[in-house]
Structures are given as C-alpha cells and as structure tokens.
Amino acid sequence: YAPWCPACQQIELTWESFAKESERLDITVGKVDVTQEPGLSGRFFVTTLPTIYHANEGVFRRYRGSRTLEDLQGYVLERKWEAVEPVAGWKSPSSLMMHGMAGLFHFSGWIRQIHTYLTVTLGLDVWISYAIFILATLLIGLFLGL
C-alpha cells in the first residue's frame, strides 16, 4: 500500500479487521508501505495499489478477489487460494530476477536521494543535477568500456 493511495485508504479498515482475525485464522497478516520499502515493491512486481499476496510454504499467489472482510476470510478459511495459479517461478519474489528488480528499485531511490541532496540541500539548479548524472553515466560507461 501507499499512504497517498485512495484505494489503499478505502481498504484500510477492512485490512485492520482482517489482521485482528489473523490469530483465529492461523495466519499472519501484514502490510508494507511501498514508499518506505521500494525494494519490496520491485521484488513483488507491484504495478497497482493495493496489491495483496497470499504466501504459503514459499509459494506466492496474488489475491484478486473482492476486498470485503468476508471474502478475505473466506479465501483463507475455505482454502480458495488453492485454486489460484501461483506466481510464475521467474516472477516469484524469491527468484533471482526479482532480487535484481528489487536492487533496481533501491538504486533508483538512491539516485533520487542524490538528486534531492544536490537540488535542495546544496541549492543547485535541476539542470546542473541532470548534467552531473549525465556526466557520471558517460564516465561509468567509458570506464566499463575500457
């Protein structure tokens, strides 16, 4: 989820109620703020918010059902998740490809922090920050080419 997401705000009370029922359902319920954990949004290939996954014994399934408390509970209690196709091996959050995707999300966050430091903290113009990144990219490419 993300705090600014209207759909996430809409499901928040339902999700909290579902989490309160987790002990009775013998499950663990959690939520991750993708603005605070960009690597996880890359690892789980989050393209829409909110995104709900069911994980059992290392097998991940994306929940696409209704977002009511009754339907979420039924998904678990009635084992409806068994009828859902697991996430493909290469797209599984534990796969090498998704580790790489998480790394790219972390890297993009690091670049954003540098850009913010250059423009906000140091007060450089945005175009100067872009020029620095262009120069760094060219130098890294030249170094790798050598």
UniProtKB/TrEMBL annotation:
<protein>
    <submittedName>
        <fullName>TMX4 protein</fullName>
    </submittedName>
</protein>
<keyword id="KW-0472">Membrane</keyword>
<keyword id="KW-0256">Endoplasmic reticulum</keyword>
<dbReference type="InterPro" id="IPR013766">
    <property type="entry name" value="Thioredoxin_domain"/>
</dbReference>
<keyword id="KW-0812">Transmembrane</keyword>
<feature type="transmembrane region" description="Helical">
    <location>
        <begin position="127"/>
        <end position="145"/>
    </location>
</feature>
<dbReference type="Pfam" id="PF00085">
    <property type="entry name" value="Thioredoxin"/>
</dbReference>
<keyword id="KW-1015">Disulfide bond</keyword>
<keyword id="KW-0732">Signal</keyword>
<keyword id="KW-0813">Transport</keyword>
<feature type="domain" description="Thioredoxin">
    <location>
        <begin position="1"/>
        <end position="76"/>
    </location>
</feature>
<keyword id="KW-0676">Redox-active center</keyword>
<keyword id="KW-1133">Transmembrane helix</keyword>
<dbReference type="GO" id="GO:0015036">
    <property type="term" value="F:disulfide oxidoreductase activity"/>
</dbReference>
<dbReference type="InterPro" id="IPR052454">
    <property type="entry name" value="TMX_domain-containing"/>
</dbReference>
<dbReference type="InterPro" id="IPR036249">
    <property type="entry name" value="Thioredoxin-like_sf"/>
</dbReference>
<dbReference type="GO" id="GO:0005789">
    <property type="term" value="C:endoplasmic reticulum membrane"/>
</dbReference>
<keyword id="KW-0249">Electron transport</keyword>
